[in-house]
Amino acid sequence: KKKGFIFDLDGVIVDTAKYHYLAWKKLANELGFEFTEEQNEMFKGVSRKRCLEILLDIGGIEATQKEFDTWMIEKNEDYLEYIEKMDASEILPDVPKVLEYLKAKKVPIALGSASKNAKPILEKVGLLPYFDNIVDGNSVSKAKPDPEVFLIAADKLGVMPKDCFVFEDAVAGIQAANNAEMTSIGIGDSDILAEADYNFKDFTEIDLDFIKKLLQLK
Ligand code: BG6
Ligand code: MG
Predict the structure, then answer these.
(1) Are 112 and 150 spatial neighbours (Cβ–Cβ below 8 Å)?
(2) Can you say which residues are annotated as belonging to the binding site for substrate?
(3) Mean pLDDT, to the nearest integer, of 32-56?
(4) Which of 89, 155, 170, 186 could form a disulfide with 199 if both were Cys (CB 3.0 to 4.6 A apart)?
(5) pTM listed for this prediction
(6) Where, by residue number, is the active site (predicted)?
């Protein structure tokens, strides 16, 4: 049966979580409160708008609509400054190894990300040509853990959801994949991503025999 692979972007392909964190932290500090890396865990896989809502909750700040919109823009402009400087050296270890293997086997590959900056980032690091389809924050209306982003990706790849494999680093992302009835592969802390079907610390732990085995599942 035809199989498809779907990759999350932030935290799976590139370590942009640190840039998101720095940009949110700057805004928090400007507004007069601290924002820790631990709190940043809650932001993974979550839309920009929702992140700002959570951030303002943390700071106990009630914003007018105008302030809210301004801060959304400000955070993104700071984030884009980091993105601007990205290159292939920021691709997480062994990600290209898996992409190459899938390409060689002619397995369709999609991106399934909440980010509205997904395409420029893939371009910057030179991985855009590997992706047959990009489904990102510009094309979905329901955020992870809603399965929408992955279901659209499967549809575009022409693969049944149950024959799709999803790489994710966020709890909401693993839940989205599970809600789509896809096979979820957690990248990161297996205690945090306990709901995943498979767990790996990072791609260096994934051996190509594992991918081969997935492709051979009935
Ligand atoms: C997700 C990140 O991939 O994209 C979140 O994990 C981020 O932290 C979300 O908030 C939206 O990203 P962007 O680039 O549209 O602000
Ligand atoms: Mg992610």
Answers:
(1) yes
(2) 8-10, 24, 75, 113-117, 144
(3) 95
(4) 186
(5) 0.95
(6) 8, 10
* Ligand (nearest to CA of 188): 2
Give the mean pLDDT of the chain. 97
Tens of pLDDT along 172-200? 999 999 999 999 999 999 999 999 999 99
Cβ–ligand 1 distance for 117 under 6 Å, the answer yes
CA distance 145 to 180: 9
The residue whose C-alpha atom lies closest to atom 4 belonging to ligand 1 is: 115
Distance, CA of 143 to CA of 139 (rounded, Å) = 11
Catalytic residues: 8, 10
Is the Cβ atom of 3 under 6 angstroms away from ligand 1?
Answer: no
Shortest-distance Cα residue to atom 14 of ligand 1: 115
The number of beta carbons lying within 10 Å of the beta carbon of residue 186 is 26
What CA–CA distance (Å, rounded) separates 85 from 167? 25
Q: Is 104 exposed, middle or buried (0-12, 13-18, 19+ CB in 10 A)?
A: exposed
Gap between the Cα atoms of 3 and 157, Å rounded: 9
CA-nearest residue, atom 13 of ligand 1 = 115
**CA angle, residues 100, 104, 108, in degrees to nearest 5:** 85
Q: How confident is the model at residue 40 (pLDDT cuts 50, 70, 90)?
A: very high
Q: What interhelical angle do 17-30 and 65-84 show, nearest 10?
A: 140
Residue 104 to residue 85: CA distance in whole angstroms: 30
Q: Tell how far the Cα of 46 is from the centroid of ligand 1, in angstroms.
A: 6
- 22: which 2 tokens? 């720095």
